[in-house]
User: What shape does this take?
Amino acid sequence: MGVRIDRWLWVARFFKTRGMATDMVRAGHVRLNGERIKPSRQLDCGDTLTIERGRETFTVKVSALAEKRISAAVARTLYAETGASLAARERQRELRRLHAGAAPARRPDKKARRQIIRFVRRQD
Assistant: This one.
């Protein structure tokens, strides 16, 4: 016997609330074996889930089922993330880190603005 997918996502701590898990499944951010599903769909061991949460995409294989919310350490044993998914998430994290350093830390002050204006006028 399986567990509702929205309930399992909440138990496995992919989403903070069960209502949020239900909304994400309805919106198509969770796919079971590559297909869009409804929140009431039963989940079984061995199923593959693709979960889009914000900027991150997880591809996990369900290894155990649970109906009650459990600690985060135990919740991580309910699934196994694929190697490709881990590598892709790490690559995205690294890209975000690199792009974060490209933006200026603050707005230019009066002196810097004058230098920018002089530089732009010289280009014309």
